[in-house]
Structure formats: structure tokens, C-alpha cells
Description:
The protein has four helices and seven strands. It has helices at 38-92, 111-117, 121-126, 135-149, and strands at 4-10, 17-24, 31-37, 99-102, 105-109, 157-163, 169-175.
Amino acid sequence: GQTAGTQEARADGRGASYILSFKALDRYPFITSVALDRDDILAAWKIRSAIAIGLLALMTFLMYRLWRADIGQQKAIADLADRETNLRAISDNAKIGILVITDDRCVFANKHATEMLNFGADDFATMSAADFVHPDDRDVLVDRHKRRLAGDVLPNNYEAVFQTKDDRTIPVEITA
């Protein structure tokens, strides 16, 4: 009494399994049927499933690696922050002025240097390294800085005169 359906059937002798679908045609006394080998029908699905599982495994592995890399990066950032805090505490408690010059800019000045020269940390960030050197010593120090960057071997210690924000002069010993 069914007019349409699908079922699985085994063929005698071969042991093959078939998927059989049938449908009664409206207004005609005919039934159409199609039978295909079960393995042929499922072959494409099996391939797609294997590819999908492989891609899922690859994506899982990549996500795991990204997660591990992110954890490593977060740990490295935390370690750097701790080291910066420790170095800042050490340098701020030093009884000498510490200035870090990079590309002719003062990128760091410790507490003692800012107090000694009467410039704030923000002032140093906008100044050239030569801006706080007394004009009489400026050309010599700029020349030494350029030569040192070019790889010339120069004395590490020398004397110079710095100029404070309020135009006082301070004799300093520089260790470069």
C-alpha cells in the first residue's frame, strides 16, 4: 500500500547491499525504482567525512598551538613587566643619574637624573640628547655619540657639563 519509500536490501549470492528507492507515478499504473550499491552511495560521504575529520584535527592542533603560543606570549609579557618594575626600582633608588639615549633621544631618565637636571620624564621624551648638554660641550658629545654608533672604539668615561632646565650648569662624569 505504500506509494513511495526507500529501503536497504541485500543481494543473494554476492553479499552486496543496495539502497532501493521507489515511487508510484500519479495517474499511471507504474512504479519507478532505482537501486544503487550502498558503498557507491556512501563513498562520497565517507571521503567528505574523512576530509572534514582531518581538517577538524588540523584546526584543533593549530588552535592548541595558538593557545600555547598565546600563553607563552602572556608569560613573556608578564616577565618583562616584572623585570621592568625591578629595573625601574633599582635605577630610581640609585644615587647617580641614569639616562638611556637611543637614536639621539632620551628614552629613559631615572629619578635622580630628573631631579639633578630639573627636567621631568615627559621633558626628556621630547628632547634631543644634546638639549641638556652645555653648548660648550655639545659638539664634542654629539661627535662621540655618532662615532660610537658607527662602531668606533672610544673611551667609556669622560667629563662634560650639563645644563639644567633652570640654566644652571652641572659638571658630570659620563660612562657610555
